[in-house]
Specification:
43% of the residues lie in helices and 14% in strands. It contains 10 helices and 6 strands; from the N terminus they run E-H-E-H-E-H-E-H-H-H-H-E-H-E-H-H.
Amino acid sequence: MIPLVLVHGFLGASAQWDDLAAELGQERSVIAVDLPGFGANAHLPPVDRIEGFADWVIGYLRDRGVARYDLLGHSMGGMIVQEVARRDERVEKLVLYGTGPVGNIPGRFETMAESRRRAKADGAAATAARISATWLLKREACPSYPTAAEHAARAGLPAILAGLEAMEQWSGTDALNLIKQDTLVIWGEQDRSYDWKQTEALWRGLPSSSLCVLPACAHLAHLEAPELFNAAIRRFLAD
């Protein structure tokens, strides 16, 4: 089987996919990347454009000799992989998870400008702890919160501000018809970052897409309902 490439989102890290990679790794190779400024690559210079992140992912995979691959992107990573899918003919299937076609994210729990203001005022550590709580249905009470917060805390303030800038300046709405790959759109029904309008626009705007809505989940559905999430991914990739 061709490998599955996993791209995390804003304040994410490759380690967030450990459980999914362990399960799918029995069937295929899994490549989980750390974007510049985040996770294990927190030391790399941050990138402030979605297109720049996409070029980095394409180059990363090309340097490793990856010929063909399936591709999953979460949140900001979903924006990045939309760009990758349009630019790289090596992409076979696409999973867009907890994401949308508008980078400024209408309906987000707070505006990008407010996140930027609070990040500058509160600092990176407090920002990581606060924002990562919004990703989970039960916030800090969720068993997965400490792990999510730990991943988020690896990003410094420059990476946080650059990521917000990258999302705010990007839109993929007018280019959805250029994504030709079979695509699965996954959404947690109580996602505070991306509302249904964003998900519907993505699902309906893509030429070849299917939709999976996970109940009683927020932005980190792969941690809140891992059995359902993993089964959806496995079925889509196997079809």
